[in-house]
């Protein structure tokens, strides 16, 4: 944890410097007759971020924060594996939206999570994996009139069928 | 007496079968739209606006105002049951609502939210009834320096919200404010902070993207990692007797927050451009500051749920005031309501109370009825929302992820934003591991678009002289209070050190 805290502060300080540089693409000072330039506000806020990182490092050096005096690892192997399975599942879910449509991705994500991570029965998994996307379809496309991504062309027959129902 | 007679006639109009029916339908629709992460009152009002041409103007605005009310009540449901603030106005409700749900006391949190919302809405309606034209004139005196001073006051309360590690809190505030500047410079119209030259950033970063990333993904990952996937909520049970005892406890332990939120929320809501979010946040901060047990805040204090909930309802009523009396919308939802009024042939402004008094008083009457209907409908649905929490966590968690992603897309209609949600979620998880408070960042991204233009306009007014924030009669005291609040933790720390040295 101790090493992690100072590493994170270092990364955030670098990010703050990047934001300062990026903000400076627009004027950061006061322009007569026009007021502060477009980069003024984000530049000085980024300076605030950088100074906060310096203060965080100072506190770390003095051992003032709980993480700075902890010799424990950031996460054990179980923690990393859990984050990998769940976080990876969410990344896979978003990646699949452009392929199998939003509703298809919801269905596949629920099968993955409920069956393989949650170890629920196939019956419960399939009921929820089919029922939830259909319910979401009627709510968003029917009631709220918000179109979700439809993925690659092979999903079109499914959408045609569902639109026939709601229109 | 004249007001009372107008009000009676307004209430009677609101109680006509068609209007009462529209109120009940509107409140119920609003409740469910508000409870869905990513959707808020603005979606409901915008989508249902065309339907209102089927009924007379008074019934139409009563219907839309009922949706607005219902959505304000519904925002708390998402914050408590799912841990995701569905709308910016419900961010502060998450601070104590979610801990209460994790302790198996979701029903107490939801009942407190419902009752506080009712009181907030009713108090605001009474203020509205009595002082509408007067307050509209006062609100007009709030120029850019005053609004910026108010934002500064809101940021000052963040410092108190962020816990003991002040540098991390300040980092979080600055980070949220910088994210709010991504996209276009609203004054010069030039692209700004297009990060890593990725074109998706030109659209800017919406509040909901950060909120869903932090709460819907990051917080969930953190909970799963901390609890090793075991069920985290104690088994909440819901009975009629339980509901009654929760209501009693909500009144006993949430009354102070309710009153603070009701009064403060209304006055912040009345100010053009401020709205319900700063109102709810400031009420939370003030309730915590005035509490005898501030350490309970953030761990499941009913006062911590009551203050923001009373405030957001009170502010939503308050924000109708500049819309009706001055024609200035205080929030995106009231902007759509304003558009609707213009389409129905009504002209909002000072003469509306004279020329269309029947319409105005029907609307005010409907506020009372909508509030009453909303609290009853909300209480009736609480068992359903609590039942949701009884699901095994391995079912609830993927449903929350699904709602986060689908809701995130519904709000922004952009795949770029969905990837940002994932990145923010993973980033929030690691920041949380090192005790970085993330709520200030979420609130800062909401208030940033108000703070920056008002600061720049103020400095333009004063030719770059920052003393404008101290010399104006309204801005000055607010700025001074904000600075004292910002310095308070440092003063406390110094006093503590001196005391230790003296011992």
How would you portray this structure in words?
The complex is a heterodimer of chains A (167) and B (503). Chain A has 5 helices and 2 strands. Chain A is mainly α and 167 residues long. Chain A folds into 2 domains: 2-69; 77-166, no CATH class. Chain A starts with a helix and ends with a helix. The relative contact order of chain A is 0.09. Chain B is mostly helical. Helices cover 76% and strands 1% of the residues of chain B. Chain B contains 21 helices and 2 strands. A two-stranded antiparallel sheet of chain B has the order 1-2. In chain B, a hairpin with a 6-residue loop joins strand 1 (183-184) and strand 2 (191-192). Chain B starts with a helix and ends with a helix. Classes of the chains: A mainly alpha (167), B mainly alpha (503). Chains A and B meet through helix 1, strand 2, helix 2, helix 3 and helix 4 of A and helix 8, helix 9, helix 17, helix 18 and helix 19 of B.
